[in-house]
Amino acid sequence: MCNDSTPPLISLLQAAVSSPIEKSKLLQQPEKLREIMNNVPARRWLFEQACQPDDLNRAADLIIAVMQSSRLIWRGGKISPDVYSESLSRTWVWFMEHLQTYDPEKASFVTWFNQKLVWMIQDVIRELSPIDDQDKERIYQIGPFPDRWDETIQEWLELVQNHPHLFRNCRSQRSPHVNCQVLLIQILTVLRNSEEFSWKAIAQDYEVEPSALRKFCKRRCFPCFKQLLPE
Amino acid sequence: MIDTDALIPIAIPITATDRRQAYQFAAQQPTQAQTNQVYRNTLAVLVMQRYLQLLGIDTDLDASQSWNPLDRLLENIADLYIPALQGCLECRPVRQGDRKCTVPEEVWDDRVGYVVVQIDEPYQEGQLLGFVESVSVPELPLSYLQPLTKLIEQFLERSPQPSIQLRQWLKRIFEPDWQFSEDLLNPIRGSIRGSILQLRETQCERGGANFEPIQRQIKPSYHSRSPDREQPIPVNLIQHRIEELCYRSSDRGQPVPVNLNPLDALVHLIQTTQDDEIRWQSAELLWELDPHHPNCPVISAKDLGFYLAGHTVALMVGMLPKSDNKMLILLRVYPLGQLSRLPLGLKLIGLDETRNSFFEVESRQRDKTIQFKFTADEGDRFDARVVLNDASFTESFVV
Questions:
Q1: DSSP notation for B116-180
Q2: Tens digits of per-residue pLDDT, A87-139?
Q3: What does the alpha-carbon distance between residue B305 and residue A24 come to, in Å, rounded to a whole number?
Q4: Is the dihedral of CA A157, A161, A166, A172 positive or negative?
Q5: Which of A191, B21, B120, B364 has the smallest count of CB within 10 Å of its CB?
Q6: Residue B330 forms beta bridges with which residues?
Q7: In A70-169, where does DSSP find H-type helix?
Q8: ipTM here
Q9: CB B390: neighbour CB atoms within 10 A?
Q10: Rounded to an integer, what distance in angstroms lies between the CA atom of residue A164 and that of residue A168?
């Protein structure tokens, strides 16, 4: 029975355990449920009720309903729906089996649940990833070797030299004098001649910051270059 | 709450195709050392890609620097672009027995995280060892690794006051407090019935559709659906209502083909009309006639009595897919139970993502319902707020 000294959240829970109408009223209010989840005395009360053997089901049912209606259980988001729903079901099974080991002082029911949910996702993925013994194709155990280097770098250099039109729109806004095609030829020549490559040395030629030059190359020039290559 | 299996590696197979890809990239390097590094880097990225694929997470190799030959030549990189995180995850390879993982300075920036992948000959599988969010040392001790669950968490929806995802409703998945319930939805049927019965004395001109078979079309399903309900609406009134909608559509230069039966005429209106009022009314009428029809709107409602100081009104949210992945959204407030009219001065307000009001409707004397319709794009967010005096209710939605 509730009396005047009972905290209001616990009074609500007491009413909800004993009356289906009060329970459905409570479950209509997600904010109130979140408050209950975050309130240590309220969840301690719920946990103690759920642990009493004679009344186990009602309080445990209320805990589950409160968790679900609180909308605090992490949702699938970008995770595959199949993986998520399997993990979610397994987490509920685990939750019911391990409710006795829950500690209301440490975390809310939902936090405890969510942490386990992520581990369940990991377990489900582990099971989904059988090591494939059927893979009999030749394995490149030895090597690989840099066997195509000379022809590769020569091909790339010629590609850049022969397609000036592709680089026409590739310009640095801050340093318009930096020409993408010339820059790429310079870089590829350094590499072909097996000279030591350094952003600093090239940046000095253009009188720009090495970090800015590197950024420009990686964001603009290299993607342009990639377009030249066959798929 | 630390699990004992916290850092058990996850084994992911490496296929012959992966090895061919890695070999191809590796062969384009000038030295044996770089060749080996690129081979292992490429496999680490592909192993991580396969793991994310199992999770259902999209990746974009083409947007990854490790998939650009010049980036591979100049820097020791193994990044994998993940659109959902709008950034690159660095996948660093290590060997069995290694106690540290090399993390070159060029990959300390511009990364959403780092995973360490153990890869050994004969390159049949990779072991995912763990994750860290940031690195700023050239040698990362493997004891610093956190479990991959830290990465998985980033893909889950974890916001503390989650919005209602309306697209879930299309799959008939409703939040517990937005469950479909006859008590809440019968009054909506009542309002549709009301608008149909108002037409009792109205003479409508023919809108174009052929209504000969309407008796056979509507009667059986309509009568069998809810035997315990009020008297069904006379079929000729439904016919008039559909004719009226067709007529209004023709009036706007969009005639409805004459050979359509009534349900198909409604579907035609829903799919083709430029007028959202006609679209919604057609959809509502279809829902009334056959709530399981695939072209019906999805409708749910919530009793706001607990929020509005005991005033028993409901907020209905209806959603109807339009072309181009757009949604027609209808918000309506209507009375429940004994109330036949809304309390005076009750407001329905829509707030956009920046919490600015984009509409406000207020009930006047004797209003039965107030409502607002708008079209939203996928991913749009809005709040629906119902205010009565000092009391209010707000719910957030994502389209």
A1: EEEE-TT-SEEEEEEEES---SSEEEGGGPBPTHHHHHTTSB--SSPPEEHHHHHTT---GGG--
A2: 999 999 999 999 999 999 999 999 999 999 999 999 999 998 866 555 555 55
A3: 13
A4: positive
A5: B364
A6: B318, B373
A7: 81-98, 109-128, 149-162
A8: 0.86
A9: 7
A10: 7
Query: Residues B40-65: what's their mean pLDDT?
Result: 96
Question: Could you identify the residue written with the tokens 């000036």?
Answer: A164
Interface test with A, best of B8, B40, B64, B70 (most A CBs within 10 A): B70
Contact B335/B312 with Cβ under 8 angstroms?
A: yes
Q: Which residue has the higher pLDDT, A83 or B193?
A: A83
Please indicate if any CB of chain A lies within 8 Å of the CB of B34.
yes
Q: Are A27 and B177 in contact, with CB atoms under 8 Å apart?
A: yes
How far is Cα B281 from Cα B387, in angstroms, rounded to an integer?
Answer: 26
- Phi and psi angles of residue B298, each rounded to the nearest 5 degrees, phi first: -95, 125
- Mark yes or no for CB contact A149/B152 under 8 Å: no
| First and final C-alpha spacing in chain A | 75
d(CA B171, CA B180): 13
Count other Cβ atoms within 10 Å, centred on residue A230.
Answer: 4
pLDDT band at B231 (very low <50, low <70, confident <90, very high): low
**Number of neighbours of residue A200 by Cβ within 10 angstroms:** 11
What is the C-alpha radius of gyration for chain A, rounded to an integer number of angstroms? 32
Q: Which of B32, B54, B69 is facing A145, going by the closest CB pair?
A: B32
Q: Which element (helix H / strand E) includes B22?
A: helix B16-26
* Mode of pairing for the β-strands spanning B113-119 and B87-94: parallel
Question: What are the backbone angles phi and psi of residue B113, rounded to the nearest 5°?
Answer: 165, 175
Structure tokens at B130: 């763990």
Please, which residues 293-352 of chain B have a Cβ atom closer than 8 Å to chain A?
302-303, 306-307
B274: Cβ contacts below 8 Å, ≥ 6 apart: B252, B254
The 10s digit of each residue's pLDDT in A12-52 is: 999 999 888 888 888 888 889 999 999 999 999 999 998 88
What are residue B350's phi and psi, to 5 degrees? -110, 135
Tell me how far apart the alpha carbons of residues A17 and B320 are, in angstroms, rounded to a whole number: 39
pLDDT computed for residue A105 by the predictor: 94
Mutation pick from B54, B59, B174, B397 vs chain A, by most beta carbons of A within 10 Å, is: B54
Name which of A78, A129, A144 is nearest B39 (Cβ-Cβ). A144
Q: For chain B, how big is the Rg over CA atoms in Å?
A: 30
CA distance A196 to chain B (A): 11
Phi/psi for A149 (5° steps) reads -60, -55
CA distance A146 to A197: 18
SS3 breakdown of chain A: % helix, strand, coil, rounded to 5? 70, 0, 30
CA–CA separation, A24 vs A10, rounded Å? 16
Of A164-168, B108-112, B272-276, the least confident: A164-168
Domain boundaries, given as residue ranges, for chain B: 10-153, 164-398
User: pLDDT by residue (tens digit) across B169-217?
Assistant: 888 888 878 876 777 777 777 777 766 665 544 443 434 444 444 444 4
**Comparing C-alpha atoms, which of B23, B61, B18, B15 is closest to residue B39?**
B23
Question: What is the amino acid identity at position B24?
Answer: Q
Map residue A74 onto helix, strand or coil. coil
Sort residue A68 into left (φ over 0), alpha (ψ -120 to 50) or beta: alpha
Residue A88 to residue A75: CA distance in whole angstroms: 9
